[in-house]
Amino acid sequence: MSKKQKWISFAVFAVLICVFLVGSFIVKSPGEEETIQETMRNEVLHETAKISLFGIKDVNPGLISAFCVTGIITAFAVIVRIFVIPRFRYVPGKFQLLLEEAVGTFDRMAKGSSPHLNRFLGAYIFMAGAYIFIGTIFELFGFQAVTTSGMSVALPAPLSDINGAITMGCLSYLIILSGGITSNGLKGVGRTLKDFSLPISMSFRLFGALLSGALVTELVYYYVGLSYVLPVVVGVLFTLIHALIQAYVLTMLTALFYGEVSEKPAPKRKKIKASV
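^ thats the sequence. predicted structure below, dont judge the formating
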């Protein structure tokens, strides 16, 4: 392509961009059919965007996303276990190296936080981290579902639903409680229950972080003038950052509290009476 043709192509592209931008300010925004307050409320509470679950009950889109993500992870794990792991070699390939590094990262985190009781902990935080990461980037694919009112909605991240976030927080708390019981019996229960606000803080940290990204992206999409290029950057940036940060934060906190409540108390030293 000659230099003249490049300049012509660039000029055509610039004209098209200008036309789209001018048209975006002339044409009425489809988001103006409802106020921005109603849009934000629907993103949080899903009062109007309900999806029928096999005709049994109307549920939030986040539950459908949770089922999809769980199915994807389960299918992937079964395929890897049956077809990939038996073919592992002493000199690992790229996929084997990636998988071993991911497992090793969470295994080291579990051993560093709870050196005395960590086998189940390592498996759980690996599962939780994978679910949070994959569930968060799931919304980037924009899978569509039809609501009970006949509208099409993109399936959100499972943990952007408050119910999903509370479930993950409570499950992590129960895992921490199980570590305390296994290691210290009833004393472990007491050491865990003293941090009764832990599941609440875990749940709302997840919910607030993931929902904030969805709300910012929805706010950008609401105005047609901002809906070119910018939503792609904002959506991808917020989603990837939240996926990494929230997966790390929840797994790290779970490992730390698990190690704290499962640590056996140091034996008391008997006092030796001095002979007269």
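The longest helix spans residues 230-262.
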